């Protein structure tokens, strides 16, 4: 699984002009699922996302997590994170999971974050979405469950 994390002051997702998910301060997670991914990848990334220390503490140091701050998380599926642009001019998505597996692991990812007591909003799986955000910092990180070392 691959994610792009963005620390945000606010973020929302619209489908056909209608807001389907929206958060205040927290993390926007763009989540891609690969065809080799399984529940272990979900567990690894959930733990990273909820515990990553990208929020400033009282001393102005990035030492707090979304759990520490009471922030929110917006999760948006994005299979294009598996786009391979090394050959030609059109990205190949051969490494992306088929929709059935991707949706199953996406939903599991969201569920496991909610189980940690964090407010989670989502986009709409397999929809054309408009994502609006105020990137705070900016702070943007990528995580990949297959690059553990």
What keyword list fits this structure?
8 strands; 38% strand; D-tyrosyl-trna(Tyr) Deacylase, Chain: A; 3 helices; 149 residues; alpha/beta; two-stranded antiparallel sheet
Description:
It contains 3 helices and 8 strands; from the N terminus they run E-E-E-H-E-E-H-E-H-E-E. The strands form 2 sheets. Strands 1, 2, 3, 6, 7 and 8 form a 6-stranded mixed β-sheet that branches. The chain has a two-stranded antiparallel ribbon with strand order 4-5. The two termini are 15 Å apart. The longest helix is centred in the C-terminal third of the chain and has 16 residues, at 99-114. The protein has a single domain (2-143), classed as D-tyrosyl-tRNA(Tyr) deacylase (D-tyrosyl-trna(Tyr) Deacylase, Chain: A). The chain is 22% helix and 38% strand. The chain has 149 residues and is an alpha/beta fold. The mean pLDDT is 96.
Shape summary: globular
Mean pLDDT: 96
Ends apart, CA distance between termini = 15 Å
The CATH architecture can be named as: 3-Layer(bba) Sandwich
CATH classification, class level: Alpha Beta
| DSSP helix fraction | 10-25%
Q: Low-confidence stretches at least 5 residues in length (pLDDT < 50)?
A: none
Question: What about the largest sheet?
Answer: 6 strands, mixed
Structural class: alpha/beta
Please give the number of β-strands: 8
Quaternary structure type:
single chain
Looking at the structure, the CATH topology is D-tyrosyl-trna(Tyr) Deacylase, Chain: A
The SSE order reads: EEEHEEHEHEE
């Amino acid at each position: 699984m691959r994610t792009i994390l963005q620390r945000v002051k606010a973020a929302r997702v619209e489908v056909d002009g209608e807001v389907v998910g929206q958060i205040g301060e927290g993390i926007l997670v763009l989540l891609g699922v690969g065809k080799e991914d399984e529940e272990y990848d979900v567990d690894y990334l959930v733990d990273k996302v909820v515990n990553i220390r990208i929020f400033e503490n009282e001393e102005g140091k990035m030492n707090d997590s979304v759990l520490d701050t009471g922030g929110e998380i917006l999760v948006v599926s994005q299979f294009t994170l598996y786009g391979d642009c090394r050959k030609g001019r059109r990205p190949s998505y051969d490494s992306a999971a088929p929709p059935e597996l991707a949706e199953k692991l996406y939903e599991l990812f969201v569920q496991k974050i909610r189980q940690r007591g964090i407010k989670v909003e989502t986009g709409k799986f397999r929809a054309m979405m408009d994502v609006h955000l105020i990137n705070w910092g900016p702070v943007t990180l990528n995580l990949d469950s297959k690059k553990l070392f």
